[in-house]
Amino acid sequence: MKHISGKGSQCGKKRSHPVLAVSMGDMNGIGPEVILKMLAGLTGGRSEHRAGILLFASRDAMLHYFQLANPGASPPYWLSGASREEWRYYEESFAFPSFEEKHVAPGPGEIVLVPAREGMERVSPGTITACSGKLSMDAVSAGIEACLMGEADALVTAPISKEAIHLAGYRVPGHTEYLAERTGAKKIGMMLVNKAMRIGLATIHLPLRDVSGTISVGLITERLHLYNQALKGDFGITDPRIAVLGLNPHAGDGGVLGTEEQDVIEPALELARDEGIDVTGPWPADGFFGTGGHKEVDMVLAMYHDQGLIPLKLAGFGGGVNVTAGLPIIRTSPDHGTAFPLAGRNSADGGSMLAASMLALEMIKRRSTTS
Fold this sequence. Notes:
The relative contact order is 0.17. The chain is globular. Helix content is about 35%, strand content about 15%. A hairpin with a 4-residue loop joins strand 5 (about 190-195) and strand 6 (about 200). The chain has helices spanning about 30-45, 60-70, 130-150, 160-165, 175-185, 210-215, 215-235, 260-275, 285-290, 305-315, 350-370, and strands at about 20-25, 50-55, 110-115, 155, 190-195, 200, 240-245, 280-285, 300, 320-325, 330-335. It folds into two domains: about 20-185 and about 340-370, Isopropylmalate Dehydrogenase, CATH 3.40.718.10; about 190-310, 3-Layer(aba) Sandwich (Isopropylmalate Dehydrogenase). It has an eleven-stranded mixed β-sheet with strand order 3-2-1-4-11-10-5-6-9-7-8, with helices on both faces. The protein is of the alpha/beta class.
């Protein structure tokens, strides 16, 4: 696979309108369907949402899902098969063209499909395959390059299958770690955002048995600085308030149910306060959410994936957005996975994909006004 050098990492060229790069996700999951619904919502109305779209996808796959949803209808112009570019691809193993060779500039409200090399495998909704895993990651890689080269201002990624990408030979836990690897980001964090709350994670895609040995004073203070800066720069919060959850039941109950709070979390919070971060905790997770503590702060730092994401999704599943903090580019994604059992039924909710695109546009605007 071609290496991305990172040049042009000040993601975005001067233009009159924002451009979003969108990666297809797994073609056998609900990614193509939620993209179609997102595009209808994003380009169908208000002028302030008239972003240009660079869609990195299989034309065959997108057409397949369009026809399932619209039997007998003519495909939209961007799926018609006409291309204004002579696409030249990377080496044979890679599915998308290089932006070092061709530059595409979609106008306001215009969708440009950057097509994958077709013929790799037929679409098979609900099926996990190595080919669909590779194509999904090639789309992500091409979207990253579009941002690093300044051809797009943000990347919105549809869901991938971790099982499929492992079948394809990738040894990363997911999008977040791959984005860090390809962009050269050293310190990253995963934030989930919806109308009810913002959740940041201390550890990300990690087996539960490894969490206790991974959290440290350094890791927690690093995450707090990262999220504190993201809240200021990307969400426009001048003085962020962050609550931190304990690891153990009852936040350790004075050391009776575990000592990580005393040994690791409390010293990290003291250090963060000394460095100017407004932080409280460690709070028992169940009582904190049960009493509405999340309503009193700007973000909650959870120690592990499910501790933070279960309450967030319970409060508003289908409308949440995943934000990767610490990257040199803006990246958002929906709060759900590939949902293979729903694939091909035209029953998936596109609300989270649309919310991810809308938040990316807000972040582009905020960064452009502060740069």
